[in-house]
Write a structure and sequence with these properties.
Length: about 270
Amino acid sequence: MAERRNKGKQTIAQQADLHEYYEKAVQCAESECEFVVDTFRQIRGRSPQSLREDFCGTASVACQWVSLGRSMRATGVDLDAAVLDWGRRRNVARLKPSEQARLELLQADVTRVRATGFDAVAAFNFSYWIFKTRAQMLQYFRRVRRSLVKDGIFFLDAYGGYDAYRELRETTAHRGFTYVWHQEKYYPVTSEVLCHIGFRFPDGSRIDKAFTYDWRLWSLPELTELLTEAGFTRTTVWWEGTAKDGRGNGEFSPETRGEADAGWVGYLVAEC
């Protein structure tokens, strides 16, 4: 973190709420819930009612889910008690009492949690890449499969492209701060990556390692094969379209081959 410029006056970085900046820069719970609902309807011909958000963190997706209607219920699962408490104070507290009653947050291991009977389970922000071996990933996928109803669907996101294998920094300007994605290390033999999220502020202060991720960079074929082995009957990759400026347009559609992009983001939709 940068040193403060004036004694007695805190920098923006020193005052920053990391989870708040993360939600502003990284997560759009509205679009993620919209994708789950619309895709589920398209595949199953009915609307999903229940969602389990694995690796939920601040539970922004689970909170958004229960706000969509009186029949919507959600469970968020995360190991980190501190981030769950932040979510309760900042996100759950903003919900109506009737919405709060349809939301449950569990401090638990997603490979052992007993919460079952869901229409949909979601694992977003690539958090499941914390599992670095086939055995670990297969154990998790099998647990998810058992947690879903007969026609349930598992939603995951993934990223890749040739820039994913580079050691680099990317910056994105937001109102009042700059978001920094830093791929510090990539190890070809193990396909492990070490990445950080950072923030830079107008007063010159910064946070270089607000969040750190020690992951395995999984390929789409590896993940789809593991999902099949775990008992899912069909897995479809939903690929993001391209806007006129060459960036992703936020619109996703089924794809069987994809394109050789420098960087891509997509969803895997695994059906029971």
